[in-house]
Amino acid sequence: MAMQFKKPSRRQFLIGGSVGVAVGGGLLLGYAVSGPSRRELAEGAAAQGGERFVTTWLKISPDNIVTIYVPHADMGQGTITALAMMAAEELEADWSLVRAEQAPAEKAFANEALGNRFVAGEDVPPMLKGLNAAAWTKIAQFMNLQITGGSMAVRYTGHHGMRVTGAAAKDMLVKAAAARWGVSPSDCVAALSTVTGPNGQSATYGELAADAAGYAPSAAPVLKSKKDYTIVGTARPRFDIPGKVNGTAKYGIDAEAPGMLYAAPKLAPVFGSTVVSYDASEILSRRGVKKVVEFPGGVAVIADNYWRAKEAAAALEVTFDTKGGEAVSSETIFAGHDAAIATGKSEDDKVIGDAASVFAAQGADIVEASYRVPYLAHACMEPMNCTVWIRDGKADVWVGVQDPLGTRARVADISGIGFENVKVHPMLLGGGFGRRIPIREGFFNFPSEIDFATIVAKEVDAPVKFIYSREDDIQHDAYRIASSSRLRVALDEKGLPTAWENIYVHKDEPGEAPHIPYAIPNQSIRFVEVENHVPRGPWRSVAHTQHTFFNESFIDELAHRAGADPYEYRRALLEGQPRHQAVLDLAAKKAGWGKPLAEGRFHGIAVQQSFGSIVAEVAEISVEEGAVRVHRVTAAVDCGEVIHPDTAAQQVESGIIYGLTAALYGEIAIEGGAVAQTNFTDYEMLHLSETPVIDVHFVESGAPIGGLGEPATPVVSAAVSNGVYAATGKRIRQLPLKNHDLTPAPGKLAQAAD
Amino acid sequence: MAITLKVNGTTHSLDIEPEMPLLWALRDELGLTGTKFGCGVAACGACTVHVDGVATRTCVTPVEAVDGAEITTIEGLAATSGAAEGMLAPVQQAWIDAQVPQCGYCQSGMLMAVSALLAENPRPTDEDIDAAITNVCRCGTYPRVRAAIRSVTAA
Ligand code: FES
Ligand code: FES
């Protein structure tokens, strides 16, 4: 099913705040949408008093340089470059004269294109869907939507903001040139940042910019057709790469401010604990240690060097009140899941037909299986950090986050300093993956390092760089939830399901993640809620991570049970889903599905739609010394349209490696109410030596642009596990794979030896 | 106690604890933030520099152990490779050509590890690369890391 965006009913351009502003002889053009949201939001939460949200700004300076301000963080997914390409394409800019940077954390750059989709209840990023109405109202009032996540930058900002801004600016430049030469605009041509006239006249955009600012932008500029693209669809070098190979790129952890001090926390291991007492007298006499500051759930040591702060924090004895949290463990959590699922007191998620009567029918052939996955940490490469300087009723914040404006609102809230007096300096992010979002209402009320840094900075007369150690990061994340699912089907005589039942734990975002694309006439998809004290948050592809593993593994079970080829079995059930079938076919073909593989190699397949894209993956695996080894992953991706082929492929590679790491190793276990893992030593990462060859193929179906940062991630765990079944006959119903001994049973070994 | 650190050709005399890890001396005392903190326990390689040409994880290397040694960080990599002022080392250029970095946070350490490997073994086998490059990259740039290494070794 293709998703359609509603067209914003009213578009508005802003040029430096009002129509037509020349800046230093240049042109500054912004694009705003103030669409149907006002009426649709009953109480007018958004855009009150004529305020508007703006997505996109484009600046042309007299030296003919075009600068595009992108209201998204670039976490390495190439967003800033891809979005600039979309604007530059419509602008007919000379790419060598285009620059792009992240928009400052100012209201003018808040993300309206995104806000509108949210308000209209369309397909929106999960971390926004999670917000309740009250939270949304608050955010809208702060106009602080600047979130990057949900694979949405190109889909929303790019499509609704960048393209329109570029096209409108080009029209204004052409009009300015035509007026200057006394000719008709239709006789002028814009190309490569220059307008040429019918009699050989020529002027650069830079020369025309000041005049162009005098024209009102068209509300509905004509966009180019895809066949005329010269920039979009080509692999342009990313703007951010040079600084990332010479050590000059500045991440949050590299922030510098005059007289800066460093803070290292001692965090309560058990979630929800409070500080009872501590004795700081010994550490306060240590070299460089300035102060200790208590905050909810911990104590921070402030010193003139992070190592000194960290060593002192490690030596600080703090007594915590665990509030009974130590009784919680992975065992009690999963036992709670099983009990909740078994009671049958579940709520409907999606219902088609009447599954219950099919199951109740005489002689029904029923198959049931229970699956589960553990908590997962994000483990961004750059440990969490935030630098805050509070003085004279003002706050400066240096941090790399997925939502700079939300961060600004959060620091304003926590510090009591007015929003207007908080300045956020966006820094690069050393990984995000859903972790670097300051407001998580709807997920969990999660106090983060940004909150703690703010509280600490209020007590210190200097800028303070607050840094989590890797151990703090692993043990104090907002985790991908631990989840369980009990799946049940009734099969017809051909082994095809006539009824599908799924009772799973926790209705997470996005809401459609537990649903299946398969044509099964009776479906009962339900959920139970089991609360515990472990913070949860969006993790790359969010609920798709668990549900794709559950559903795509179970479908594989059914295929084998029917004696069918797992690819053909899916294909048959995907009748009427041509996009799904197309990626499945392409992945199968490119992987050589069904053809003989090298000795000891086996294939597993899986498919999932998420964030507007559909991804099929075939994993080629072997089992060596009882452990799985993944040699190759072939991915076919339908994301509608490919903007930047190189970063698109890179995001798919990245998503697969992130998902594969979790499938093989990812497990956050809870013991005594706390996280048992500590660092990369026991929360293991995939390394270069274990990385499969990854083959990526795109299908450009022309469907609305889908996301790429996330959709490749959830598919790989099922594809690999299904390969393990093909290799060993062992069905993997719990992740990670490292917990399974895949050594063949003696009987089987004998067989193999035969 | 005065520690002498020779970093990227400049000699610094620092009055710091001998057990302070080199990582924090570089970052917090000398302001060389290109070298990154990832794990603190020698498990990720983000903090890798060259000590007398050898790839070294600085988060577990006390400064007293490198007193007087030649230390090269990512900021000095181009210069030690003999690149002209403002130019890049061959591996850095290969990284740009292959568009390796994503978030980029691990890449300083990755480049230092790779450049040390290639200095010692200009024609590494895939197994040599697997054994030497154990740096963690959460963004999963590994396929491009290998391709970029190969573009240098094939040259
Ligand atoms: S920070 Fe030194 S190896 Fe990870
Ligand atoms: S590029 Fe992000 S961790 Fe390697």
What does this structure look like?
The complex is a heterodimer of chains A (about 750) and B (about 160). By secondary structure, chain A is an alpha+beta fold. Chain A folds into 3 domains: about 1-225, Aldehyde oxidase/xanthine dehydrogenase, molybdopterin binding domain (Aldehyde Oxidoreductase, domain 4); about 250-325 and about 385-465, Aldehyde Oxidoreductase, domain 4 (2-Layer Sandwich); about 540-740, Aldehyde Oxidoreductase, domain 4. Helix content of chain A is about 30%, strand content about 25%. Chain A is built from 21 helices and 29 strands. In chain A, the strands form 7 sheets. Chain A has a 7-stranded mixed beta sheet with strand order 12-13-10-20-17-18-19. In chain A, strands 1, 2, 3, 4, 5 and 6 form a 6-stranded mixed beta sheet that branches. In chain A, strand 7 and strand 8 (about 195) form a beta hairpin. In chain A, helix 2 (about 80-90) runs parallel beside helix 6 (about 155-180). Chain A is globular, with a radius of gyration of 27 Å. In chain A, about 60% of the residues are buried. With about 160 residues, chain B is an alpha+beta fold. Chain B folds into 2 domains: about 1-75, Ubiquitin-like (UB roll) (Roll); about 80-155, DNA polymerase, domain 1. Chain B has helices at about 20-30, 75-80, 90-95, 105-120, 125-130, 140-155, and strands at about 1-5, 10-15, 50, 55, 70. Chain B has a 5-stranded mixed beta sheet with strand order 2-1-5-3-4, with helices on one face. Chain B is globular and about 45 Å long. Classes of the chains: A alpha+beta (about 750), B alpha+beta (about 160). One FE2/S2 (inorganic) cluster (FES) binds near residues 39, 40, 43, 45 and 46 of chain B. One FE2/S2 (inorganic) cluster sits at the interface of chains B and A.
